[in-house]
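Morning run. Coffee first, then this:
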Amino acid sequence: MRAVRHAWRDEVTPAAGACVMATGIISVGLHLTGHEVLSKLLLALAALIWLLLAADFADLLVRDRPRWTAAAITPPALTAVAATTVLGTRLSLLGRQGMAIALLVVAALVWPVLLLAVVRHWRRRGMPGGVFLVCVATQGLAVLAATLCLAGEGDWLGDAALACFGLGLLLYGEALPRFDVRQLRTGAGDQWVAGGALAISALAGSKLMAVERWAGAGHDALRTVTYVLLGLALAWYAVLLAAEVAAPRPGYDVRRWATVFPLGMTAVAALSTGLVADVPELRTLGRVLLWVAVAVWALVWVGVVWPRRKSPSGV
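And here it is:
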């Protein structure tokens, strides 16, 4: 327990929000595949970590405003929005619509503040995979809004989801040329967000496909876009996996949670698209990828709790 506490204190950074994202999306995947007990256990864990992170960052805001501001202008700060929407999505699927709406409101209020702060400090090129979090956070709003719309909480949520979906794709296009492709061989884990952003976009597309008001041509267009996004996400998955094999990076880093999230998100995107479009092959692929994500999630947790030696410099 002491090792866990020390690891937590050392690694409570904006990037730690990816732990909630990863745990929450795997909970969604387990729900979609019928593993309800395990799904609820992971949901409880994700909610607990979300509360701890929220309390820690609120405390930091009060005690050390300059440090909080410095963290808020970095792309990993947007994990706060993405984590909140993932948690809200799982709660909505559980039938907790009131809690899900509350989380949507929180995320929607925080999102523009952090998004503008992050974009203003973008570099033209040479950025790590976290640059794609502008897309992930925006598509997270789309996924949660669409999920609530499908739960009967208001047709306007479907319109809001569609708007976020389109904006998220535009933000991905803005982030892509800024991404340093050398991160494929040298990244500490967040390079996987390049594919994860497309996967959550595909998930948002699959949710929008299920909204009945967009039948006919609208549905066909959403289906085509969703298939393309899922295909690109799977292509990124293959490229990133090949890069990991070619240049192994063993050892724990908090940014490895940003690896687990895209693994789980790709699985859920395949599962959701397969369910909505009635493509059994995608559902099978999603199940396989889900258990890959679960295995990597468990390995990263081992890295969290396993005692790690520090160098004399304290690194």
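The chain has a mean pLDDT of 90. Good start to the day.
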